[in-house]
Amino acid sequence: MSKRTISVLLLATMALLLGCDQTPQDPNVLYSKTSRPLQELEMTTAVDRSQFAYKQTFYVPIYSDIYTDRDNRKVLLSATLSVRNTTLKKSLYINKIDYYGTDGTFIKSYLNKPIELPAMATLNYIVEKEEDKGGSGANFIIEVEGIDETVKPVIEAVMIGNFSNKGFAFSTEGTPVVH
Prior knowledge:
Layout: H1 3-19, H2 27-30, H3 37-41, E1 54-61, E2 65-67, E3 74-76, E4 78-84, E5 92-100, E6 106-109, E7 115-117, E8 122-127, E9 139-146, E10 154-163, E11 166-173, E12 175-176
């Protein structure tokens, strides 16, 4: 066997081993001290909301799966929901993160109490690839509020997946909901 063949085999073996994820843990919990990472961030003290001038609800599309052009085969995706406080000095308060399926059915509420997101902080939540309850039209409804209009967040979702030997990623943005 030539050195080149051995090198290619070693690289292929390493790629296969590195591609095997043996971590059964939820990545949202992986760096958390408890099994409820969002609940760790929930506020324990009351905030005077009477001074809040900004309140907005956002719709964020999430694709749990998409279909390929070959035999309408379904490809599962993982998604990262990202809520970013873009202010330099003011907190953003997240009151609701609810997850809905393609048919509009409520799947899960992620918060029991509001979360205070400090200035320049980001809250991420990962929807696992294996979670297929949401479907191709899944979405989050997120309710935020703050002291004034300057506390508007950036809310995005990034989906990643692979089909055959091709990987892909795309993103969506949160859209304000008109009540």
